[in-house]
Design brief:
The protein has 381 residues and is of the alpha/beta class. It has two domains: 15-249, Aspartate Aminotransferase, domain 2; 252-380, Aspartate Aminotransferase, domain 1, CATH 3.90.1150.10. 39% of the residues lie in helices and 12% in strands. The chain contains 13 helices and eleven strands. The strands form three sheets. A seven-stranded mixed beta sheet has the order 1-9-8-5-4-2-3, with helices on both faces. Strands 6-7 form a two-stranded antiparallel ribbon. The chain has a two-stranded antiparallel ribbon with strand order 10-11. Helix 3 (57-67) packs across helix 6 (202-209). The model has no long low-confidence stretch (mean pLDDT 96).
Length: 381
């Protein structure tokens, strides 16, 4: 029996060559030739004002939390249906997390429920573009501006996806991207990107990135010496990671096109079952694009989902559920007295299942997975 993994990082063939070149150049510690080339790629392709490579998407979020000047007691609104880093980065700065519900028809944060959560202590809203599909950013930005609140886009999954023609991560005050090996492209297993759209954060972002020093300004000749001027940490990835990432970025169009083809095969093959009411398929709003980060179906209840995952595993296919609701986590229960009622979040946490999707997933493998799902709903349920 053939085993189909959930994910497999794709190698373009240039990664090892560029990594060797980084070693040969004699600079490995970061912010060298390959880091600068990656920065230029993002700033030119997406017209971002300023970007900074980081060692992970989590580190990008932690930099964003520092830039937002979070203080103990500040409130940050985060969707409960997300990865823990979306909240943890702000918790580490002392924030009180206020969890928001998802939309009824997709896992993204419901903007129409935001104003009920805003208080005089609210400092940041963190929309998470689930599966690389945009939140309703016009509505979120309208609410944020009305109340004087910063917006940090958690765009971990949304590289090369757009909202009304604007690249995700480039709409809020700050944006964060992940290059973990489960994402469309990777920086060698781990990596991230901070996008600075609000000019007031540009200078300080470099200082925080460089361990709280103005080292970057020194090397540009803007100051005659550098020293410790602010808080920060060692957020720079090595040139090895940047070299790996550059090889991936150069093949971004090819990678995206292949993933979109696989996504389309799933959608077309599973649509008849969805039309019969067996499950729901992903909903892509008309203001959003699809970067094919993920293909999922939404089962009718948790029991059905568990049986489907087990059935696929028995047949050599590794499918996975996704996030557990953060408002029901042990950490939240131990540190917070609030018990929010978030029915849409709970629904996706119980019923959503992700199918394998990676560059080298063959057409016959996609067809096998589709046929196994058809068999499950015909013969098992």
């Amino acid at each position: 029996m053939k085993n189909i993994p959930f994910n497999k990082p794709y190698l373009t063939g240039k990664e090892a060559h560029y990594m060797y070149q980084a070693v040969f150049n004699g600079k490995l510690s970061g912010n060298g030739e390959f880091t600068k080339k990656c920065h230029s790629f993002f700033e030119e392709r997406y017209d971002f004002k300023k970007v900074i490579l980081t060692t992970s998407g989590t580190d990008a979020l932690e930099m964003a939390a520092i830039l937002c000047d979070i203080k103990p007691g500040d409130e940050v609104i985060v969707p409960s249906y997300t990865f823990v880093s979306s909240a943890l980065a702000f918790v580490r700065e002392g924030a009180h997390i206020v969890f928001a519900d998802s939309c009824s028809d997709n896992p993204n944060i419901d903007p129409e429920k935001l104003e009920d959560l805003i208080t005089e202590k609210t400092k940041v809203i963190v929309p998470v573009h689930y599966a690389g599909v945009a939140c309703d950013m016009d509505r979120i930005m309208e609410i944020a501006h009305k109340h004087g609140i910063l917006v940090v886009e958690d765009n971990a999954q949304g590289l090369d996806s757009f909202y009304k023609g604007r690249p995700l991560g480039g709409i809020g005050d700050l944006g964060c991207v992940s290059f973990h090996e489960t994402k469309n492209i990777t920086a060698g297993g781990e990596g991230g990107l901070l996008i600075i759209n609000n000019e007031q954060f540009i200078r300080r972002s470099e200082i925080i990135w460089e361990k709280g020093t103005n080292r970057a300004e020194f090397f540009r000749g803007m100051v005659n010496k550098y020293g410790w001027v602010d808080t920060g940490s060692s957020f720079l990835p090595s040139e090895i990671n940047a070299a790996f990432l550059l090889a991936q970025l150069e093949q971004l169009n090819e990678i995206q096109n292949r993933r979109k083809t696989i996504w389309g095969m799933y959608y077309e093959g599973l649509l008849p079952l969805a039309e019969q009411g067996k499950f729901l398929l992903p909903n892509i709003p008309n203001y959003a694009t699809n970067n094919a980060h993920m293909f999922y179906i939404i089962c009718r209840d948790i029991e059905e989902r568990s049986k489907l995952i087990a059935f696929l595993k028995e047949n050599g296919v590794l499918a996975c559920f996704h996030y557990l609701a953060l408002h029901e986590s042990r950490y939240y229960e131990e540190h917070y007295t609030d018990r929010p009622h978030l029915p849409n979040c709970d629904y996706f946490a119980d019923c959503l299942v992700r199918l394998p999707l990676f560059y080298e997933l063959a057409k016959e493998d996609v067809e096998l997975i589709i046929n196994k799902i058809k068999s499950f709903y015909k013969d098992i349920l």
